[in-house]
Prior knowledge:
By secondary structure, this protein is mainly alpha-helical. Helices cover 67% and strands 3% of the residues.
Amino acid sequence: MRLxxxxxxxxxxxLLTLPLTISTATAEINLPSIGDSSSSIVSRQKExxxxxxxxxxxxxxxxxxxxxxxxxxVEDLVYRLAEASQLQDRRLSIILIDSPYLNAFAAPGGIVGxxxxxxxxxxxxxxxxxxxxxxxxHLSQRxxxxxxxxxxxxxLPTMAALLGSIVLAATGAGDLGMAALSSTVAGAQSAQLAFxxxxxxxADRIGILTMxxxxxxxxxxxxxxxxxxxxEGTGPQYxxxxxxxxxxxxxxxxxxxxxxxxxxxxxxxSEYDLMRNRAITLTTQSPETARNRFAEELDSGRTVxxxxxxxxxxxxxxxxxxxxxxxxxxxxxxxxxxGDIHIQILNNRIQFANGKRQQGITGMRELLKRNxxxxxxxxxxxxxxYNNGNYKEALxxxxxxxxKRPKDPEIWYLIAETAGLAGDITGVHTARSEYFFLVGNMxxxxxxxxxALEQPKLAFSQKAAYKTRIEEIRSYKKTMKL
Length: 482
């Protein structure tokens, strides 16, 4: 584990010094997992431990997209596919990375990483799902373990190289980042990439089967791969294709296998259309450009979904602090789509921004009552309550969400900020401790629990709980060599 951390850390050090204009990943879109007959080399328990450490490093070093609506959509889709896959261990950690580059990866411990850029390139839900199904196939077939066996059981250097390359792939560091690895590890990685060309076809075939079992048209995978193969070498965002080749034979094989299943028409006004446009509004660097794009689509009628276009245009207008324009844009569909939570969340946000604060909050509360436990609605309500100064109620909602999503650093960060404004200093330190633990900073995690112990009038049971938690974190730090 010390070797793992040091190699990844060296890679990250190199990564953080690279200019923002650097090209996208040269690693594969399908970085695989550990296991199978190699369980004697790396046990399932060790795989989970490695994955836990790696997940903390991802949260610490990458820009993670925490938008609740996008996160929930992606999680639902991944689990829908996982249920239809050959995965035996379905304990997954899904991380959405704030990057415009087309990429996705799988890593030890059931980690599935997806760049927001995938929304920009996948035109339909089936295309988007095709990439996810491919990644899940790598996990289910435990391709990484087979690579470890091919490397004469030198699994730790190879594993460290692999995880380091995943970080580079996720952030777009390209070949320069790989220079941070030693020549021995780099050589092992080259052999691993060569080995996985065979795994690629296997992952394609099993991914196609997964999509069909999930009730999705596997032609989506074939159509995206076919389009990607034509883009190879046309720009830096496609550089990863050099080590993830989509040969004519592979594309043809994927297309042929997909066509063996019944065709399914794509849904108009689907949730994917809304979320794809939402991703565009979040990733664009120019709100004006996004506004002009969606306005032109709406005016010309050249749009895949009027609902999705109006939704995106209203969202951009709201972001630009033009709520009156946003209300006008959304009005034609707001009443017709009373059952769509994305439209209703946006409508309540617009009401709030238009000065009808209580109306917006009340509408969000009622929406949550109709959809109890819904994560995006809960977090939207928190946002309105926070901006209205209702810190204690916002804190109650956040703490409920933390029980359902205890490994989400963003929730603990928000709890700390909200608890401070609500006057709950002990709550601030407790939440900050959990946040720092989840991003791999054990020392600060312990330090905040020690601050909490210093608070006056602390109940004996609470003191005991804090002391127990401190010992747990110290033990984890020692075991994982963090």
